[in-house]
Amino acid sequence: MREPHVLIAGGGIGGMALALTLHQIGVRCTVFETVGSLRPLGVGINLQPNAVRELYDLGISAADLDSVGLPVREWALVGLNGNDIHAEPRGTWAGYDWPQYAVHRGQFHMLLYAKLRARAGAEAVRLGSRVTGYTPTPDGGVTAQLSHIGGTTSEVSGTLLIGADGIHSRVRAQMHPDQPPIHWGGAVMWRGTTRARVIRTGASFVGLGTHAQRMVIYPISAPDADGLSLINWIAEVTYDEPDAHDATGWFRQVKIADFIHHFEGWQWDWLDVPALIRGADVAYENPMIDRDPIPTWVDGAVALMGDAAHAMYPTGSNGASQAIIDARVMAVDLLKHGVTQEALAAYDKELCGPVSELILRNRGAGPFGLLNMVNDRCGGEFDDIDDVIPPEERAAFIAGYKSAAGFAIEKLNAAPRTVPEGAKVG
Questions:
Q1: pLDDT digits over 45-95, tens only?
Q2: In 3-state terms, what secondary structure has residue 195?
Q3: What is the pTM assigned to this prediction?
Q4: Do 83 and 209 contact (CB within 8 A), yes or no?
Q5: 361 and 277 share a domain?
Q6: Where in 183-307 does DSSP place strands (E)?
Q7: Which DSSP helix (H) or strand (E) runs through 378?
Q8: What pLDDT, on the 0 to 100 scale, is given for residue 316?
Q9: How far is CA 402 from CA 189, 214, 317, 352, in A?
Q10: Number of domains in the chain
Q11: Which end of the chain is more exposed for a tag (fewer CB within 10 A), N or C?
Q12: Are 147 and 113 members of one domain?
């Protein structure tokens, strides 16, 4: 009997997390990644406690994560006049058994890649190879069609194919050929990083402004000898008429002068937003986009995960976290059912419905919905937030999101390991 072999389309964070997980449970896999060489691309992302827990169980240590980011102490929303709407501790400071991490996306990606090469060998990742389609095989497996840098093509057969190839997934496009185009609701983001002094607790995630215009700010490194940290910032504007703005350049470098006028005057004694933006070496623009939920992530021996399955607005800071959870849940089903189509069906049944609801919840602003409520009730400026949104209403709103996203404290802390220690398939 031939050894099971899982093909993974895409070597991003989800694909690397899945490959590491498959190696952990004794399943051979190969990752096919489009680019010819991996580089630490991107800016800041957050890893929620439910994902950090899985990374620890996967052998990614706190020291590893400290090398690419830092634990988040606080999550805060602030109104236009600089007064707090809501602030709460995060990670272990909130009572979780695991921290929340703010990391440099590219450095975290490279960390996972290095771990995979060290554990499974360099042959576990084939760079310069893109999965362009798939065909079922008579034995219940799958053949993936590949295109390579240089223009050549080839095919490879495996037991299962997992599409971890992002929001523009070729695997998803074949599985759901009639899917609608990518959804854009009118919000444009400008991203950058600046070396600056930290604010508030020194490790705070801060959302500032209104639904129509806001900043997200948080450090992704500990302070250096000069007391400066690498501060990740995202400046956002939502256009009332999306068609009036060019959204074709989905990730492009832009001049700071192109957008900083939206945030001139955003200055308080504790934060100077224009100075923070101007301190960046480079800025990138991209629309806030997602995809409509689909009824299933599975087609026989083929499954989707990560952004290929559930590209979502970053308002909940859990896109990368959910990709890691996908990998771990899939592993549980492979342990239970073997490397089979039945395992993929079980994975689909457990996650597709709830995560599809999360896509729509994030489209409705996720936890940042509090900013919308404040804007609607008082225009974003207030003296005492309790007069605008009572404490009980704020607490209930945040608790509802945490529950939907899978990181309610009591439930997470009490849950057994997702992948049992030492478990192997078959």
A1: 999 999 999 999 999 999 999 999 999 999 999 988 888 999 999 999 999
A2: strand
A3: 0.93
A4: no
A5: no
A6: 183-196, 204-209, 213-219, 229-238, 252-254, 267-268, 271-272, 283-290, 298-299, 302-304
A7: helix 369-378
A8: 66
A9: 24, 22, 11, 18
A10: 2
A11: N
A12: yes
CA 215 → CA 48, 127, 192, 205, 330, distances in Å?
20, 36, 11, 11, 35
So what's the pLDDT on residue 248?
A: 46
Question: Which domain, by its residues, includes 206?
Answer: 186-218+228-288
H or E element: which one contains 37? Answer: none
CA distances from 398 to 79, 86, 110, 216, 417 (A): 17, 9, 32, 17, 25
Q: 273 and 307, same structural domain?
A: no
Last residue of a domain, one of 288, 303, 323: 288
CA distance readout (Å), 16 to 276, 323, 393: 33, 10, 39
- Tell whether 213 is covered by a domain: yes
Domain boundary pick from 262, 288, 314: 288
Question: How many other CB atoms sit within 10 Å of the CB of residue 44?
Answer: 27
The tokens describing 48, both together, are: 């929620």
Percent of the chain past pLDDT 70, that is, above it, reads 95
Whole-number Å distance between alpha carbons of 9 and 12: 9
CB-based burial of residue 21 (10 Å sphere; 0-12 exposed, 13-18 middle, 19+ buried)?
A: buried
Quick one: 72 exposed, middle or buried, by C-beta within 10 A (0-12, 13-18, 19+)? buried
Is 332 a member of any domain? yes
Structure tokens at 394: 């704020």
Question: Which pairing describes strands 153-158 and 283-290: parallel, antiparallel, or unpaired?
Answer: unpaired
Integer Cα distance of 65 and 165 in angstroms: 24
Best CA proximity match to 212, nearest among 43, 374, 384, 401:
374
CATH number, position 206? 3.30.9.30
Whether 406 is covered by a domain: the verdict is: no
Question: Which domain CATH number covers 174?
Answer: 3.50.50.60
Q: Where are the alpha helices (DSSP H) in 280-318?
A: 306-310
Token pair listed for 373: 């409520």
CA distances from 34 to 106, 122, 157, 168 (A): 16, 16, 18, 12
Does a structural domain hold residue 270?
yes
- Same domain flag for 252 and 303: no
User: Same domain for 42 and 139?
Assistant: yes
The contacts of residue 383 (CB under 8 Å, 6+ apart) are 83
Q: In this structure, are residues 327 and 215 in contact, taking their beta carbons and an 8 Å threshold?
A: no
